[in-house]
Amino acid sequence: MQWFEIAPLPSVSDRRTCNGSKWFEVLRQRAPIQDIAKHIWYSGATPKHAFHMWITNLNRLPTRCRLALWGMQVDTSCCICSFHPETRDHLMLSCPYAMVLWSEVRRRCRDVVPVFNDWSELMQWSSSSSAPAPSNLRMLVAQAIVYYIWQQRNNMLHNQILVPPLVTFNGINRHIINCIYAARKRKKFCSLMALWLI
Length: 198
Ligand SMILES: [Zn+2]
Hints:
This protein is mostly helical. It folds into 2 domains: about 1-40, no CATH class; about 45-195, no CATH class. The protein has helices at about 10-15, 20-30, 30-40, 45-55, 65-70, 90-95, 95-110, 120-125, 135-160, 165-180, 190-195. The radius of gyration is 18 Å and the shape is globular. It starts with 11 loop residues before the first helix and ends with a helix. Zinc ion (ZN) binds near residues 81 and 90.
């Protein structure tokens, strides 16, 4: 189990027979949850983006693959590209739409941004830090991308409208600049504008 994942609670039947060591395993995971919470709910975060990231990190978004798992009769192909099963990792990381957004981040960021093969790699990257890409900038970017992709996915699902990815990235870029500007007097934000814009 990765450090940012949450141990599943024992099932109802298990809870009746659960011994102390099993509950200990569940409770033992509280510290890692606090660790990832600290990164997601960082000081200066956009609340709706942080909340959405929290839900996404728990893999609770109602993607089509999850809806199918719940027994719903739905087409499981990606709402955006239609080529692959719509899982969280596909939508946010490997869908062609997401890949355009991440390639724009790579162009902007002054540190290496890897290609994320799965969600754990994204969370690992966004909660790490370096001088040219501090963790609050990484998390700000990651949360904005994840939020905007889900918005576009829903726009496609409900309205059959998809904004071109570079236009979406302009919105993401504007959001990031506004956030950095609003928090410019905070110690951890005062240097971010130069890191993001140059
Ligand atoms: Zn796709």
